[in-house]
Specification:
The structure holds two protein chains of two kinds. By secondary structure, chain A is mostly helical. In chain A, 78% of the residues lie in helices and 0% in strands. In chain A, helix 1 packs antiparallel against helix 2. The termini of chain B are far apart.
Amino acid sequence: MEAFFFLLLAVVSIFSGLMVILQKSPVASVLFLVLTLVCVAALFVMLSAPFIAAIQVIIYAGAIMVLFLFVLMLLNLQRFTEGAWSRFQITGVVVAAVLAVVTALLLRAVPLPADSGFLRETPGLGSVEAVGLSLFTEYLLPFEIASFLLLAGIIGAVILSRRRP
Amino acid sequence: MLETIIILVKVWAVLLTLVSLAAIMTWVERKESAIMQDRLGANRADILGFRVIGLFQPMADGLKMFFKEDFVPPQGNKILHTLAPVLAFFPAMVTFAVIPFGNVLNIGDLAIKLQIADLNIGLLFILAFGGFTSYGVVLAGWSSNSKYAMLGGLRGAAQLISYEVVLGLSLVGLVMVYGTLQLDRMVLAQNELLFGFLPAWGIFLQPLAFLLFFPAAIAESKRIPFDLPEAESEIVGYYTEYSGLRFGLFYFAEFVEIIVISALVSTLFFGGYHIPWLYEEGFAFPWGWTWELPHLVVVILRLAAFFVKIAFFAWLQVLIRWTLPRFRFDQMMRLCWKGLLPLVVLNILVTGLILLLAQN
């Protein structure tokens, strides 16, 4: 049962991930990205990390991707859908190649065990209470630094969108 | 095997109740509008001359939508045009999976929890699926390939994203007070007593949160005074190009949302299925009287109480809808970002301070 759901989610997420970059229409790409994110969230649930799954759906699928869609609809996208190799595509290929090499090296350096039993030994690992406790005790400093980063982002957005006098 | 059957029965019962309640809500909406406008209203649909105060109207509506031409704009995107109403309908329905409608029902040795799924992330589950409704609105606007629908979809996306912020943050205070995201545990905590007589309902602990949550929830359901994405009477909205059953799905989703919002408000702020001073063994009034009741009676009383609360808040939403005029777009945005949001943050701050003082 578990293996079946894992395979189903993995296949769907890889397929929709491929469709994100193979689709001509940007709106369809965004929707496939949403599907990928939802599938990954479901995989988080299977890894007994419901909190991360919920946050992934709320923040990425629920808010950020809607804004993507919003912007895509307002822009005239004819310009981006045609044309051969643009600057973005070359950058994309370089980044993808680097990521592939790093992933391959990591997989060779750290062999993944079939089943370490880690999840079974620590029940409630990904629950809201456990994540909250470790965020506000052990990892308080990185958490606060991240919140400062977000604050800077918010202030930047407000200044950028302010009307010029 | 038995567990699977119990879960299936629960899902089936909740779905059936939800859908029939939503169908009855369309009738309530017609009747309430008639009362507010001093008309008779919704009394034409009859079967063999029987009218039963217009209760056949939902059936007539359904039949009408079923037989109407289902038109897809030829220049639009057919797949997304079909997907959009489903994306609007599905999140509203699935939210009910985590709402508890009773405590535990004991039949012999069998203990049946009257809730479909008791999730650790209960409230977050509701917010996560609530966020999906905006896809229905945006895609309906875009896939119709019509300027008016497109503008309606954009208005809708802006409104839904803005009010989601208030909706989510207004619940933080409640989570701080009850110390859990599990709806089941929240409801159980609301049967405790404050000062020995007042039930610890969310409305008494977090009155400001309720006043902020309720308008934000109405804005999420896109009804007057927040119906700018639709505005069927003047500025034309995102489902202009929909007809037949596809339109019916949008229309029906709105009524399911009314029921879901009522259930959420009663679960979070009005004690859920609890009746004040009614415990598992029966009533125990603060002035000393007790009245023992059998288990089954307690369960049925609580189900009835939950039902009455849902009915009240559903009626209240219909009343608001037929009372207020629509906001202008800038007024609606200002209300959200400059009116409700600072108050929501203030609520979290004050709740935190009081909790800290109470601990020390």
